[in-house]
Specification:
2 copies of one chain form a homodimer. Chain A has 11 helices and 10 strands. With 270 residues, chain A is α/β, with parallel strands linked by helices. The A-B interface holds A 41-44, 48-50, 53, 56, 124, 151-152, 155-156, 159-160, 163-169, 171-173, 244-246, 248-249, 270 and B 41-44, 48-50, 53, 56, 124, 151-152, 155-156, 159-160, 163-169, 171-173, 244-246, 248-249, 270.
Chain lengths: 270, 270
């Protein structure tokens, strides 16, 4: 087992194309890095699936990213981060760095939101894992977290983008009493930044909407710097793989990545 | 290859638990039949997946239902019926009867809706396959079919049931100009009967809402009668399998089956 080399790619995976919001932030922050993205569109959405299923999918994807020689694996999906981060870390061991979207976000909250009341929205799995609350409570920073599962929102955003068709859903979800009286709202799903404005408009007084993608991208940069693994060479190669290819994913990818993306079919489950 | 026997079960499969609306109609119509239901919750929803993926899943499920000794396989999912019926029939050959939800519905339209203008809503795959229109046009019965993909509706119904959270979605979907001025609306997705009233209320004047489940159940009965395969013996056994088990599927099952259902995990993809 040799130490990773800086020219090796960063592997990023998600249940589908929503993780492209994180991929985009990473590319913006680290333009010289080689990127391998894998979206498990054959199984999306993960929010409904069982813990065991998500863990099995995540292990197999991490294995594929290791075959692609990645130096770092970013689990760019809150659901998979919530239930599969530990098992993926164990599986990869010292062969590569494994990061999730939750730890960098918790650190950011610790540094910026002490003694505040923070709302969190995410999938059923992310919310019921209670992992954000557990990790934040461990900090003893007086941060109070209240969370509500907004399960259909990821699929709705994939279907409609930032469109009025989802206003009714959003209204029902955000009006839930458990997330009333908050000072900030954490978007704990990589799809949600696409409708950040719409979410902000729901609140009569201004509250801060916390978008993870930049936080996570900065954490990747810091970690690669620390480990002396930043790539400073020439041009960057990017591959965007999906386990099931459809035109609708191909069209939707731009919405999340903010620029044209060429999706390639990678038949991981065939 | 021996001829099927009447005591063998009817196999019913769907991408998830929506097909339970069809299973329920079959149980009501044929209370003495043994039933094996398989919901592919590991891959739901099918509406987003590629044709090749849905065909591969359907073949594997049909194989499993044959191992369970089914005399008849009902593809209780419009998406799978649209893209995988032919390949499943070819695969099963003469070992069992294979039926889909589309042919019985087309026959029903032929008998009752000549010279009418019919709207159809279903998943992206069902609508883009154009299979209803093709089969109906072949009848030369002057039935005019217009269709619109209401892709998120199945997941929304699984999440919320018959709840106002989906009113906004429904309004956007049903207001699409392509399905204006229709005399009847075919619900070409097994989930939709759950919100039949809500759909009817969208229309200012009364239009007929066509629910497939009873049509399909009657077609199964007719076919078993014709083939002399109706079961008239004692008690009926029912098994309801899912490829991924979660509490939320277990809770949702009652919504579609109208009575308590005990879901069992069948790890077909492990």
């Amino acid at each position: 087992m040799t130490k990773p080399h800086s020219s090796q790619p960063i592997g990023i995976f998600d249940s589908g194309i929503g993780g492209l919001t994180v991929a985009q932030a990473i590319v913006k922050c680290l333009p010289k890095e080689n990127i391998i993205y894998f979206g498990d569109t054959a199984h999306l959405p993960y929010g409904d699936k069982s813990t065991a299923a998500i863990q099995a999918y995540s292990i197999k994807i991490a294995h594929m990213l290791m075959e692609q020689n990645c130096k770092l694996i970013m689990i760019a999906c809150n659901t998979a981060s919530a239930v599969a981060y530990e098992v993926v870390k164990e599986y990869i061991a010292s062969k590569a760095i494994v990061m999730d979207v939750i730890d960098p976000t918790v650190l950011h909250l610790h540094q910026n939101y002490a003694h505040k009341r923070i709302g969190l929205i995410g999938t059923k799995q992310t919310v019921s894992s209670n992992i954000y609350k557990k990790k934040i409570d461990n900090l003893n920073a007086g941060i109070h977290v209240v969370s509500h599962a907004t399960n259909l929102l990821a699929s709705a955003i994939e279907e409609f983008g930032d469109h009025k068709a989802i206003d009714g859903l959003l209204e029902v979800y955000l009006s839930h009493p458990i997330i009333k009286n908050i000072e900030a709202l954490l978007l704990a799903c990589t799809h949600y930044p696409v409708i950040k404005q719409k979410i902000a408009q729901h609140y009569p007084t201004s509250i801060e909407i916390i978008d993870q993608s930049e936080i996570v991208a900065n954490a990747v940069k810091t970690r690669l710097e620390t480990d002396n693994l930043l790539n400073n060479n020439g041009t960057s190669n990017k591959h965007f793989y999906v386990s099931d290819y459809t035109e609708s994913f191909a069209n939707g990818a731009k919405l999340f990545f903010n620029e044209d993306v060429k999706l390639e079919h990678y038949p991981l489950w065939d």
